[in-house]
Design goal:
The chain is of the alpha/beta class. 38% of the residues lie in helices and 17% in strands. The chain has two domains: 3-303, Mur-like, catalytic domain (UDP-N-acetylmuramoyl-L-alanine:D-glutamate ligase, 3-Layer(aba) Sandwich); 312-461, Protein-Tyrosine Phosphatase, Chain A (Alpha-Beta Complex), CATH 3.90.190.20. The strands form three sheets. Strands 4-3-2-5-1-6-7-8 form an eight-stranded mixed sheet, sandwiched between helices. It has a six-stranded mixed sheet with strand order 12-13-17-14-15-16, sandwiched between helices. It has a three-stranded antiparallel sheet with strand order 9-10-11, covered by helices on one side. α2 (23-31) packs parallel to α5, α3 packs across α9 and α3 packs across α10.
Amino acid sequence: MSYKETVRYLYDLQLHGVKFGLDNIGRLASELGNPHESFLSVHVAGTNGKGSTSAIISSILQHAGLKAGLFTSPHLVSFTERIRINGEEIAEHEVIQLAGEIRETASCLRGFSPTFFEVITAMAFLYFARKNVDIAVMETGMGGRLDATNIVTPEVSVITSIGFDHKEFLGSTLREIAGEKAGIIKKGVPVVASFQEPEVREVIEKQAAEKSAEVFFFGRDFSATLKRDDISEICFDYKKSGLPAIRDLVLPLAGEHQMENASVAVKSAELLNGSPIPKVSVPAAAACHPALITPDCIREGLRNVRWPGRLECINEDPAIFVDGAHNPAAAAVLAKVLKRNVPEKYKKIIIILGVMNDKDIKGLMEPLLPLASELICTSAACGRAAPPEKLAGIAGSSGYRNARIAATVKDALDMAIKSAADAAVHGSTIPDREYETLQRSSRPLILITGSFYTVGEAKELLGHKGVLARVREWR
């Protein structure tokens, strides 16, 4: 198969639907020789922030001299974004090879129909094993307890901020959702968690106690102090009780929430120091010992993190940012960052919004509408996308009176760029060079958000090319 045919085959597996359970992935992994047992791992679950946290952990481990794998989802433009080693994406020819091998293995098993996520999880396991990674950071797809990644026994389990999302699969209450996420906790394996609502924290603590797993919470066992926050990076001090702080850590991601994600990542990495080597034989570099992950490793790991789609600038003039906020909690965090940073640099904000129809659209819009000088409602090229007319209607019912409709993301981009240009200074008599500078500073910031589908499509339109980039799983 060609790469395009391979990606199409993988996404056609979605016809098997979303299936929770470990039987399929356990059977498939067994047929492949249980590749996930040949390397150390860190397992990350949560509602918001798990992708960023996973990327930060991976970067710290890389800068500690380890060969670090990273498995995340969804991708923005290219399928290869999902599987990386030391920041390098898997090659297309390796996607073809692994998918073909797993397809052949699955076809030999009677009555066996693996899902899309089960197959790509198996691909990641096999890839990391064959590349002899020292350690892999594995992000759950959805949930945790019955997620395909949950056959790993990690060195550290990580639970980021838990909120409402995927309620039709995970439960209608925070307690139920937390129970699914906390299902990644393993016997005797330490847990690092973000700050959580009291009922969520109670569920995590109960599950950890049942598994004799020590749990560390942000805000209780470790903390951070924000020192600088702008649209492109933050600077903060990381603190632990009774120990010297690691000061002036710089992270090229925006927002106080990223300070919390980074702190969770730092604590997780620190717990690997002195951890026992598991039952498998691993390269000497993976023998985590005291001082392997030093403050300098942490500092450089944070400074060199690259994580697209999270308040990422994808165009300078006009300024176009994208953020994959796809639920109310993520939108609230995004709004907080914008309030803190945008007024100093940009005249106003034009928001391009494209949301999936099964999301809490009104809840997602609520924190963003007060910031939008103009709202352009659009629809990604995806069957689950909400019609732009519906988005505009919900905005109107919330009292917003400046919503416009664009049938496609391309139309929305064209509309926003024209609107930004029209807002520039006209008729000035100042010198040309000063006029151009003033013109740029007086233009609005264009923000594209509401869904990773919308963000990925916008990136593709602005030159970030992928193969079948608009074909993505249910998220």
